[in-house]
Amino acid sequence: MSPEYAMDGVFSVKSDVFSFGVLVLEIISGKKNRGIFSVEPSLNLLSYAWTLWKDGKALELLDSSISSNSNNNLQIMRCIQVGLLCVQDRQEDRPHMSEVVLMLNSLNTSLPEPKQPVYFSVRDASDMESSSSCTVSDITVTVIEPR
User: Quick one: which of 33, 31, 143, 21 has its CA closest to 93?
Assistant: First the structure.
């Protein structure tokens, strides 16, 4: 689910692009976006893919059932990069689907560097302890029913 839809209930054409990016990364990795990775318990798929990308180890995202060789590594890296471009935080930074199709079909098209995905969250125990706060609000809800 795109961040603008999850947070504000706003759906746009870039919401589909976000979902497509998640799907691409799920297919490449063979893992679902939700859930926790045993490699690093505080990472979801998007943050795991982002961490590998930034560390120059993006091919480690590849599912073991997909054969990897030097001939298709360029295509795999391109798919990971396109997936990360699609899941960028700001919808203005995400490409349109027509651009995604062009990026995937043309190896000659240069791609911009992706920015950090919105759901990138690495937390350790100290972060969780220091950020726990609670706000209590008194709210009254009135339901009007017809006679």
Answer: 21
